[in-house]
Write a structure and sequence with these properties.
The chain is an alpha/beta fold. Among the domains are: about 230 residues, Rossmann fold (3-Layer(aba) Sandwich), CATH 3.40.50.280; about 90 residues, no CATH class. Helices cover about 45% and strands about 10% of the residues. The chain contains 27 helices and 18 strands. The strands form four sheets. Strands 1-2-10-9-8-5-3-4 form an eight-stranded mixed β-sheet, with helices on both faces. The protein has a six-stranded parallel β-sheet with strand order 11-14-15-16-17-18, sandwiched between helices. Strands 6-7 form a two-stranded antiparallel sheet. Helix 12 links the parallel strand 14 and strand 15. Helix 4 crosses helix 5, helix 8 runs antiparallel to helix 9 and helix 17 packs antiparallel against helix 20. It is globular and about 80 Å long. The N and C termini lie far apart (about 70 Å). The N terminus is likely disordered.
């Protein structure tokens, strides 16, 4: 394999391993580009030294107001509207604008409403348009950009231009000459397109070819600052450096715009789960995740530099994180919300326990909202794991922990997923978390490419494969057996009623080692981007039979229930192999038929609002909730699901939430399916781990007596 040609620049003062990644002067006093390295045929690396970056953003804001008093950059920042959590990337970029005395506006769009951007641009007149582009959510964005650029080129040149490539080339040249927005006097004629987001990790060239004037790969904070300053010309830029110098996020303006934008986006404001970012970077190289490429990117950037690169994981300043917590409290008061938990979107939390110790005391005293965090099994296992969990649990600092297992087969985990924690570590991590009573969410992948390739394939030509160093093959004839191993691993652990077994059906991310393997082995086509980010109910691979795909979906929708039984693997095997149908009625019949064979991990629960209930209690509620003759079929399904409710968390409340969802679907003339059951169950467990347990208002009077008991 040919190595990329890299033009090495001299006299670069780069930080090395162990250095503090801060600018001791706070910010650069001059306006000049960092050292640039052209990675031939790919992109330009922006080799920011510590003296090039801004860490004291408040001082930088004051500095700009003095030396550039008329400088007030205005950008419209755009993301997708399909996420359940707020977009901290846009808020971070907005923070850059605010600390450059600029103006930020925000829009979250989907395929059905992206054309609203035309009206927003007309009304707001931004100088820049920035897209946070996610893999799987790109086609409609590129279509809009094409229309925008053709219209703008035609308007500026006062003639009809129909060819996009011609319009794109003309506008890029105008932006290159202007070093930014194109004006006619004080009138903005063209706001350049900036495209960032993880789509650019692999498809950066596509972003540029389809209309991006500035395409940003890797970290975007420093490049975005310098684009706004007019230092860069159009091109593809990559920042491989692991700086964590994100300013205080622009939550206030983001919320204001989301409140006005749509009823859907108001949900981010009124959600009781807010997001924050404690650290940047991930030191692991999981083969299915685009984040893993950050390590390779950093190594590439330091190639032939003669020094070791700094750690890929960097903590954000504690003062900045605390200030963002204060913003959450202040905006809660403004909008009449009470945030119950803060989701730490760091790829790995708890990396630096000295940092967490310092933050923890101040956070709980000043903010008082617990974090929901993500951690690796190895970080939670052993004595160090116990110390970590004890530190965060004794203060009530966390409401729950998410821990990825991905596969129960150690060989699959190591060879195919590039995860090197064995099952003993996984089991010890679960035990440690449960010894401190912290709700746990395990994560697994269903439908991995674990079967043997049917086409000629050289495993040595791939970064990952299921052939080990001794040539031994670790393939499965039936991929469901690999998924069952993961379920069995959790069933044999200290997994308890309040814990949730989360899984997603695999879809390849283009450019990741596992995505490339899936394509080379004939399991997928190169066109996997359209579904990669959406956690689809269908496999992103084309190598499974229709029956196997149906079984994978049934496994995915029901695995949390089976995870709560010692014999969960055997029960799941009966369900997926002995059934012809995998609908709600079939599942309820199975639960009823197996009522005497259910061996729960814990008989008595102390978690939840109404933790321990009886079958009679459930049946009384069903009689109350389903009184109409038209509800009799669903009522009977619920009665057959008694064992389902009895052994899951807060089963009576879960039954009440199920009833609310059923009646809502009924009013909207929609059926209630196994997928609906799964979604209500999933959100029910999320409510618990985010400290958001509640009694549905529709059944509050009925359930209050049980609370008193």
């Amino acid at each position: 394999m040919n190595k990329r040609e890299i033009k090495i620049s001299n006299n670069i003062s780069l930080p090395k391993r162990g250095d503090a990644l801060v600018n001791i002067f706070g910010y650069p006093k001059t306006f000049q580009l960092p050292t640039l390295e052209n990675i031939s045929g790919k992109y330009i690396n922006t080799m920011y030294s510590t003296n090039d970056i801004t860490v004291d953003w408040n001082a930088y804001k004051k500095f700009l107001s003095e030396v550039k008093p008329d400088f007030h950059p205005h950008a419209l920042l755009i993301g997708h509207d399909s996420s359940e959590i707020e977009n901290i990337t846009l808020m971070a970029l907005g923070g850059v604008l605010q600390h450059m005395n600029g103006i930020s506006n925000y829009a979250l769009v989907g395929e059905n409403n992206i054309n609203i951007l035309t009206d927003i641009i007309k009304n707001k007149q931004p100088e820049w348009i920035g897209f946070n582009l996610y893999t799987g959510l790109t086609d409609f964005v590129f279509k809009w950009i094409k229309q925008y650029k053709i219209e703008r080129a035609s308007f500026i040149l006062k003639r009809n231009i129909s060819d996009f490539e011609h319009a794109d080339r003309l506008l890029k040249n105008m932006v290159r000459e202007a070093r930014g927005p194109v004006y006619d006097g004080n009138q903005i004629l063209y706001a350049p397109i900036i495209i960032g987001g993880h789509f650019n990790n692999y498809s950066f060239d596509e972003s540029f070819e389809k209309g991006g004037d500035y395409v940003v790969r890797g970290k975007g904070i420093n490049i975005f600052r310098d684009i706004l300053l007019g230092l860069f010309e159009p091109g593809i830029y990559h920042d491989p450096m692991p700086y964590a110098n994100i300013p205080q996020m622009d939550r206030e303006v983001f919320y204001s715009d989301m409140y006005e934008f749509s009823d859907k986006t108001k949900g981010y404001i009124y959600s009781k789960i807010k997001s924050i970012l404690t650290a940047l970077g991930c030191s692991y190289t999981c083969s299915y995740c685009y984040i893993s490429s950050l390590i390779d990117n950093l190594k590439e950037a330091y190639q032939n530099k003669g020094i070791k690169p700094p750690s890929i994981i960097q903590d954000r300043p504690i003062g900045t994180v605390l200030a963002e917590g204060q913003d959450i409290i202040r905006l809660d008061e403004h909008y009449g919300v009470k945030t119950a938990a803060v989701f730490d979107q760091a790829d790995i939390s708890l990396n630096n326990m000295n940092w967490w110790n310092e933050l923890g005391e101040k956070w709980m005293h000043d903010i008082g909202i617990p974090f929901y965090i993500q951690a690796r099994p190895a970080m939670l296992a052993g004595k160090k794991g116990i110390e970590r969990i004890e530190t965060i649990s004794k203060r009530g600092l966390v409401s729950g922990i998410s821990m990825a297992i991905e596969s129960g087969d150690q060989n699959v985990r190591k060879l195919l997923l590039d995860r090197h924690e064995n099952n003993s570590i996984v089991l010890d991590a679960i035990k440690n978390v449960k010894n401190f009573g912290v709700p746990l969410r395990t994560q697994a992948i269903v439908g991995l490419p674990v079967i043997k390739p049917s086409i000629p394939f050289n495993p040595n030509a791939s970064k990952v494969s299921l052939v080990d160093s001794e040539g031994k093959e670790h393939y499965y004839d039936d991929p469901l057996q690999e998924s069952l191993k993961c379920l069995d691993l959790v069933c044999s652990s200290f997994f308890r009623r309040e814990d949730y077994y989360w899984n997603a059906i695999y879809s390849p991310f283009p450019g990741t080692p596992l995505g490339d393997y899936s394509i080379k082995a004939g399991f997928a086509t190169g066109d996997t981007a359209s579904r990669a980010y959406l956690f689809s109910s269908e496999s992103g691979l084309n190598c499974f039979s229709d029956l196997t795909s149906k079984r994978q979906l049934a496994f995915s929708l029901t695995s949390n229930f089976f995870a709560h039984f010692k014999n969960g693997k055997d029960l799941m095997s009966l369900f997926i192999y002995e059934q012809d149908n995998y609908d709600l009625d079939s599942f309820s019949n199975f639960v009823l038929d197996q009522k005497d064979n259910l061996l729960p991990n814990d008989q008595i629960s102390t978690c939840g609002l109404i933790p321990n209930i009886s079958k009679n209690c459930l049946e009384s509620f069903f009689d109350h909730a389903y009184r109409d003759d038209s509800d009799c079929m669903f009522k009977e399904i619920n009665k057959k699901l008694a064992g389902y409710y009895l052994y899951l968390l807060d089963g009576l409340l879960l039954a009440a939430k199920m009833a609310v969802s059923y009646h809502t679907n009924k009013e909207n003339k929609n059926s209630f399916t196994l997928s609906n059951l799964y979604r209500v169950e999933r959100l029910h467990y999320y409510d618990n781990c985010y400290h958001m347990n509640y009694i549905p208002e529709k059944y509050a009077d009925y359930l209050t007596d049980y609370l008193k008991k």
